[in-house]
Design brief:
The protein has a single domain, classed as minor pseudopilin epsh fold (3-Layer(bab) Sandwich), CATH 3.55.40. About 40% of the residues lie in helices and about 30% in strands. It contains 2 helices and 8 strands; from the N terminus they run ααββββββββ. The strands form 2 sheets. The protein has a 4-stranded antiparallel sheet with strand order 3-2-1-5, covered by helices on one side. Strands 4-6-7-8 form a 4-stranded antiparallel sheet, covered by helices on one side. A hairpin with a 4-residue loop joins strand 6 and strand 7. It is elongated.
């Protein structure tokens, strides 16, 4: 009779074990969710900086290949968009939500980066893009028109 009792034993978890596992998972999730939000904000900032740098390079290439002036006009009033102007055509590009222009050294030239038909910029300068916590700097060199992204201001 003792052998038959073992056959009917139910294996499982006690209520205390289940509650402890749920409590540990809850604690871990409160730590992981804020880190995910920070990671997402940094990703948006990096993508916005890369897209701006690519559009500046594209404007330079269009100026050379088409033989006319191309411009990037930064909207520092709304701080969330810029225009790429080439040959009478324009395209507005919006920054991702939560990402905005902080400042630029192009303020004294109407917030505009201009490339002449040789590909040379009107001047070298920096555009600071931020998400409120982190800032990236899109830097245009005067001598070559080279564009790079930096984590520290030049």
């Amino acid at each position: 009779m003792h052998k038959n009792c073992n056959r009917y034993q139910i294996k499982g978890f006690t209520l205390i074990e289940v509650v402890l596992v749920i409590a540990i998972l809850g604690l871990l999730s409160t730590v992981a969710v804020p880190n995910f939000k920070n990671t997402l904000a940094k990703y948006k900032l990096e993508m916005a900086a890369k897209e701006l740098a690519q559009n500046i390079q594209l404007a330079q290439q269009k100026a050379i290949t088409r033989g006319n002036i191309c411009k990037i006009v930064l909207d520092l009033h709304k701080k969330d968009n810029y225009m790429v102007l080439s040959g009478g055509r324009g395209k507005m590009i919006k920054l991702p939500p939560g990402v905005y222009f902080d400042w630029t050294t192009y303020y004294d030239v109407n917030n505009t980066i201009v490339f002449n038909p040789t590909g040379a910029p009107n001047r070298g300068g920096t555009v600071a893009i931020t998400n409120g916590k982190d800032t990236l700097y899109v830097i245009v060199l005067l001598s070559t028109g080279r564009v790079r992204i930096g984590h520290t201001p030049p």
